[in-house]
Automatic annotation (TrEMBL):
<dbReference type="InterPro" id="IPR000060">
    <property type="entry name" value="BCCT_transptr"/>
</dbReference>
<feature type="transmembrane region" description="Helical">
    <location>
        <begin position="420"/>
        <end position="440"/>
    </location>
</feature>
<feature type="transmembrane region" description="Helical">
    <location>
        <begin position="461"/>
        <end position="479"/>
    </location>
</feature>
<feature type="transmembrane region" description="Helical">
    <location>
        <begin position="337"/>
        <end position="355"/>
    </location>
</feature>
<keyword id="KW-0472">Membrane</keyword>
<comment type="similarity">
    <text>Belongs to the BCCT transporter (TC 2.A.15) family.</text>
</comment>
<feature type="transmembrane region" description="Helical">
    <location>
        <begin position="201"/>
        <end position="226"/>
    </location>
</feature>
<feature type="transmembrane region" description="Helical">
    <location>
        <begin position="246"/>
        <end position="268"/>
    </location>
</feature>
<dbReference type="Pfam" id="PF02028">
    <property type="entry name" value="BCCT"/>
</dbReference>
<keyword id="KW-0813">Transport</keyword>
<keyword id="KW-0812">Transmembrane</keyword>
<dbReference type="GO" id="GO:0005886">
    <property type="term" value="C:plasma membrane"/>
</dbReference>
<keyword id="KW-1133">Transmembrane helix</keyword>
<feature type="transmembrane region" description="Helical">
    <location>
        <begin position="367"/>
        <end position="392"/>
    </location>
</feature>
<feature type="transmembrane region" description="Helical">
    <location>
        <begin position="107"/>
        <end position="128"/>
    </location>
</feature>
<feature type="transmembrane region" description="Helical">
    <location>
        <begin position="280"/>
        <end position="300"/>
    </location>
</feature>
<feature type="transmembrane region" description="Helical">
    <location>
        <begin position="491"/>
        <end position="512"/>
    </location>
</feature>
């Protein structure tokens, strides 16, 4: 009887809790539900069938390597070239925000934050490991010692340099442009506004955000997996732990995610900011320590040569797929393709941070800053850590090469070869741990923002949910196949997202073109000449779009008398002037001055139709717009210049406009530097 009485109460309590969660949630079901279902399916599959999951992931990964490696390389290069094109074109002058918006942060602060964006777990994990691995196992055979070192550093720069930041910059630029210029939410779908327009909130918009969200989840999980493995390696190096088991990794992952969730829900954003700044300082101190403790002069000399080698080889590297060297394609798949997919999965995460700090910057300033500031810092870091590691490996007859199979331990093995190595290892472990927590904290914020379509501050329970989801997903993938499974899922989900990013470039370009045309649109010549007289008649013309009859009336009642008066006056001055009227479906009228050595001066007006925007036609508050076209009297000239609408001009104003154009023609004709344009070429040919 007791159970029967309480079951309904328990059910009511659960329903009440569900209603409360639903009422406070900012999550958008069309984005959130498919994403969570997909992630949970992957989690269950990897946890319940680890061996089968590993086989399946490897099969899919190998298929992508075989059929789509070229696509990753081509897409990464397109992003880079697209940004360089924008930077060098007039579109680079467009501001990320209103035209009068000032940058939110000073240039120095902005550069410092971009500098900070280049820091992360990846640099700590790969700063020593990647150059050493490329040096120990170079892609090309039969290289000299010097060539192996140069190739190792150049390849590392390629993976961590401009191309990586070009992938980030494409997303960041789209978020900043459409977010601050069009006032749209800071979500990936907003970049498709020029293509989807009113359908932005429909199926395709949801699908774009779902793929972006899934990609970010797996990218974050991969990074956290790297962090957990390196924290474990650090504890082993310091003698605090003597195990590499899954249980140890699970404990590290769970504890770190708990700290990240506590940070996310406590609202101590200032504390996280202090931690991040502290980490930046500690990372900087480690960098300085390595430069001083390592072969200092050799590093600076190597940095200079490495930079030259990298930039001179950049174009060739950008399109390298080893199509004619199939024996190297497995290397390409295991390094470059995995990197490009990793960068793509992190692009919404890093892009949102960069977008938020870049309001008020011009596109040119944005691109130059985002492409080069973090890239140059990464190159300095890799040169200092990787170059020193290779130099030490040579001096110690392969001490680091001997442990190169244990990638996560290479950083601590490197510090063991330097003075005060234990202290440096402790600081490095602290830096990695803080990066782990702050990255997870920031990741939770970004996931909330993406799943909520950029709306409002998320309730605390959502942060707990995302933290738990990241931890469970990371553990299930580590359980099924370790780091390889994390990399495989990132690679798989990044493929459709790279395709989305390519379309995003087209949407961004289209938006920028419309922007520059809109901003450069000037008043009609009739409006420029208008003195304010007859304003009621002018208003009537504005609100009642003209049809063919109106244009014929204008040509007969305004243009014809004006041109007749001009012909009479020009003839009195000894000039051979005439008027031509061509009737028909699209009538036109011309005032022409016939010359002997010069081209004939021609000022014509013709009827032209223009398609109206659907937004205008369908607007019930504009009752006089019933057709999808309007008709206008547009000028044309002897030299093919673009004409303009003259329908608002009076007879006197039209005469003035013709004389202005004739004066311009005569001024150009008197200047011999314009002879190519003003000479009568047709008569010369005869």
């Amino acid at each position: 009887m007791f159970i029967e009485d309480n079951r309904p109460n328990n059910m009511e309590h659960l329903m009440s809790l569900y209603q409360q969660l639903r009422a406070t949630s900012t999550l958008k079901a069309p984005i959130f539900m498919p994403t969570v279902i997909f992630v949970l399916l992957v989690t269950v599959f990897c946890s319940v069938f680890p061996e089968q999951a590993q086989i399946t992931l490897n099969t899919v990964k190998q298929s992508i390597f075989t059929h789509f490696s070229w696509f990753y390389i081509l897409a990464g290069s397109i992003f880079f070239l697209f940004l360089i094109f924008l930077c060098g074109s007039r579109l680079g002058d467009i501001r990320l925000g209103a035209d009068n918006d000032e940058p939110e942060f000073s240039f120095t602060s902005w550069i410092a934050m971009l500098f900070a964006a280049g820091m992360g777990i990846g640099l700590m994990y790969f700063g020593v490991a990647e150059p050493v691995l490329h040096y120990v196992k170079p892609v090309q055979e039969n290289l000299t010692e010097a060539e192996r070192m140069k190739e190792a550093m150049m390849t590392t720069f390629y993976h961590w340099g401009i191309h990586a930041w070009a992938i980030y910059a494409v997303i960041a630029l789209a978020l900043a442009y459409f977010g601050f210029r069009y006032k749209l939410p800071l979500t990936v779908r907003s970049g498709f506004y020029p293509l989807l327009k009113n359908n932005l909130s429909g199926f395709w918009g949801h699908l774009i955000d779902i793929v972006a969200l899934c990609s970010t989840i797996f990218g974050l999980t991969t990074t956290l997996g790297y962090g957990a493995m390196q924290v474990n390696a650090g504890f082993n190096n310091l003698g605090l732990i003597d195990s590499n088991s899954f249980v140890v990794l699970a404990v590290i992952m769970i504890v770190s995610m708990m700290l990240a969730v506590i940070s996310a829900i406590s609202g101590v954003g200032k504390g996280v900011k202090i931690l991040s700044e502290t980490n930046l300082v500690l990372g900087g101190l480690l960098l300085i320590f390595v430069i001083i403790a390592g072969p200092t002069l050799w590093l600076f000399s190597g940095l200079t040569e490495n930079l030259g080698y990298y930039f001179s080889s950049l174009l060739e590297l950008s399109f390298r797929t080893f199509a004619y060297e199939p024996e190297h394609q497995s290397w390409l798949s295991g390094w470059t393709i995995l990197y490009w997919s990793w960068w793509a999965s992190w692009a919404p995460f890093v892009g949102m941070f960069i977008a938020k700090i870049s309001k008020g910057r011009t596109i040119r300033e944005f691109i130059l800053g985002v492409l080069f500031v973090p890239s140059l810092f990464n190159i300095l870091w890799m040169t200092s850590f990787g170059g020193s590691a290779i130099w030490i490996d040579q001096q110690t007859h392969g001490a680091l090469a001997a442990i190169s199979d244990n990638t996560e331990a290479l950083l601590f093995g490197f510090f063991d070869q330097l003075p005060f190595g234990q202290i440096a290892s402790v600081i490095a472990l602290l830096v990695i741990s803080i990066f782990f927590i702050t990255s997870a904290d920031s990741g939770i914020f970004v996931l909330n923002n993406m799943a909520s379509q950029g709306s409002g501050k998320a309730p605390k329970w959502q942060s707990v949910f995302w933290g738990a989801l990241l931890a469970v997903l990371g553990l299930s993938l580590l359980y099924s196949g370790g780091l390889a499974s994390l990399q495989s899922m990132t690679l798989i989900i990044a493929l459709p997202f790279m395709a989305i990013m390519l379309v995003l470039c087209f949407g961004l370009w289209k938006g920028l073109m419309v922007d520059t045309q809109y901003s450069s649109k000037k008043f009609t010549q009739g409006s420029v000449l208008w003195t304010g007289e007859n304003w009621k008649e002018r208003l009537e013309k504005i609100v009642n779009p003209t049809d063919r009859k109106d244009i014929r009336r204008f040509l007969n009642q305004i243009a014809r008398p004006a041109f007749n008066d001009l012909v009479k006056e020009f003839l009195e001055h000894g000039l051979n002037a005439q008027m031509n009227f061509i009737d028909g479906k699209n009538p036109k009228i011309e005032f022409e001055v016939v010359n002997e050595n010069l081209r004939n001066f021609l000022y014509g007006i013709r009827l032209q139709s223009r398609q109206l925007s659907d937004l205008v036609v369908d607007d019930d508050n504009l009752p006089n717009l019933e057709e999808s076209k309007i008709y206008e009297p547009i000028t044309y000239f002897f030299d093919g210049r673009e004409g303009y609408d003259v329908q608002y001009m009076t007879q006197e104003e039209l005469i003035v406009d013709v004389l202005k154009q004739y004066e311009r023609f005569m001024n150009l004709a008197m200047d011999k530097s314009h002879n190519l344009m003003t000479a009568d070429v047709e008569n010369m040919a005869e």
